[in-house]
Specification:
Shape: elongated
Helix content: 25-40%
Distance between the termini: 42 Å
Number of helices: 8
Radius of gyration: 22 Å
Strand order of the largest sheet: 2-1-3-4-9-5-6-7-8
Order of helices and strands: HHHHHHEHEEEEEEEHE
Length: 201
């Protein structure tokens, strides 16, 4: 018997302990329609796949059986599955002209973030207390708030710092070596928020 997309959907639903009714409600589809998809009576449309993938927190192709004809249509391109990786020392030296040193797999929390990138830290004198070799996962679209670890897109030296606020309400950066980095309100808007840290094994 062919392992069609519906069989794959049923396996994903049951492995999560979800009823037909619960999945139908979450997907905005009828219970009957979900049943028909699972039994192969109704073929999957691309919008079904995308809607169901969001519910299960997976990429569209993970919703499909290996032989599904929808795979080529919905396959993720490299930008959807990988992040460009920059070396912190290259950014400190070359700034916005720095070239990507390669890519790393895109973490689930970074999957839908346009323009996301990663920075590897090799120099503790130029980084906060995160450890040599750590990789920072950067969301350039999220606003930076007090307490956040940020990438210094102003001059990349230091490469990263934490946002702090003093008793007078002035926002500034603070490095590992307790060096204060003076910032204007306009500067804060140019900083990129670190959304996660990956530590090598």
């Amino acid at each position: 018997m062919q392992h069609h997309d519906g069989v794959h959907l049923r396996m994903m639903r049951t492995s999560r302990g979800m009823s037909l009714a619960a999945l139908a409600t979450s997907a905005g589809l009828s219970k009957s329609e979900i049943s028909k998809l699972e039994n192969g009576v109704r073929p999957f449309r691309p919008d079904h796949v995308i809607r169901l993938a969001k519910i299960f927190g997976v990429g569209p192709t993970e919703m499909l059986s290996p032989a599904s004809p929808l795979r080529t249509m919905l396959s993720e391109n490299k930008a959807d599955t990988e992040l460009p990786l920059y070396e912190g020392r290259d950014l400190a030296r070359d700034g916005v002209d720095a070239k990507s040193a390669g890519t790393i797999p895109r973490a689930p929390q970074m999957r839908s973030i346009a323009g996301a990138y990663a920075v590897t830290v090799h120099d503790l004198s130029n980084a906060p207390a995160i450890g040599i070799g750590a990789t920072l996962l950067v969301n350039p679209n999220a606003p930076a708030n007090v307490g956040d670890l940020v990438i210094n897109r102003l001059n990349f030296s230091p490469i990263a710092f934490y946002l702090r606020q003093d008793d007078e309400g002035v926002i500034y950066g603070m490095t590992l070596s307790r060096r204060r980095v003076e910032l204007s309100i306009e500067d804060v808007e140019k900083l990129h928020k670190v959304a996660g840290i990956w530590f090598p094994h």
